[in-house]
Amino acid sequence: MSRTTRIVPIPVLGRHGINAYLLLGRRPVVVDAGTPGSGRRIHDAIAAHGVDPADLSLIVLTHGHIDHFGAAAELRRLTGAPIAGHEADLGPFRTGRVRTPYLPTGPMGRLMARSAKLRERAEPFEPDLLICGETDLYDYGVAARITPTPGHTAGSVSVLTEQGDLVAGDLIANSFMGLIPGRPANPPFHDDPLGNLASLNRMLDLGPTRLHVGHGTPLEPERVRRWAAREHRRLSRPRTAGRLRTRPATD
Fold first, then answer.
1. Region 188-194: what's the mean pLDDT?
2. Which residues contact 236 (CB under 8 A, 6 or more apart)?
3. CA distance 173 to 188
4. CA atoms of 97 and 188, how far apart (whole Å)
């Protein structure tokens, strides 16, 4: 039986503004659940790819931000699939509210942090599968594993397939929330910028063939690696001066 897992993007906002992903193997898995109210859109996109949404084996949430877990409870009702989320982001999942204040990574984040949409309350839920460490997805029908990649939030995770596709959530993004395709950039917010960078470099060391991100088009690993080196140099000055804001993991 083939162990190949195919990655299919599901646009949630615009063409690439917010992405969920359909992983196709022996059984389908969805990574991320978009903004509140987008469950039906994701459900119908799954069906449009010739997959019965009732066959969905798992909904994996990369982290506890509203544009990634917002419709998780709705999508679970529509498909019957269980939800997997990391224990460190249980607070947002259980309350439907993200941790605030957001910690911007630059001008885009400072602008977006004013948006009431980002403080919208999602429908709360309890994950069916609580992620504490690496989790093999073979029993859910795909040749892949969930790997904790903390930094963007304490409970951020990525999914790496056996053939090297990395579904990276907000570990990295395209510039301007995907408006400049193919150019690596920070997403608008990070709870721990250096922690996130360490997670990104750790995943790059595993040799992924491509990074599929929450905001934008797929990114080439070597281009991301060069960006990460520049980002490390950029962060060194505010870190040394004690001006690099971070959120405690238990906040």
1. 97
2. none
3. 9
4. 18
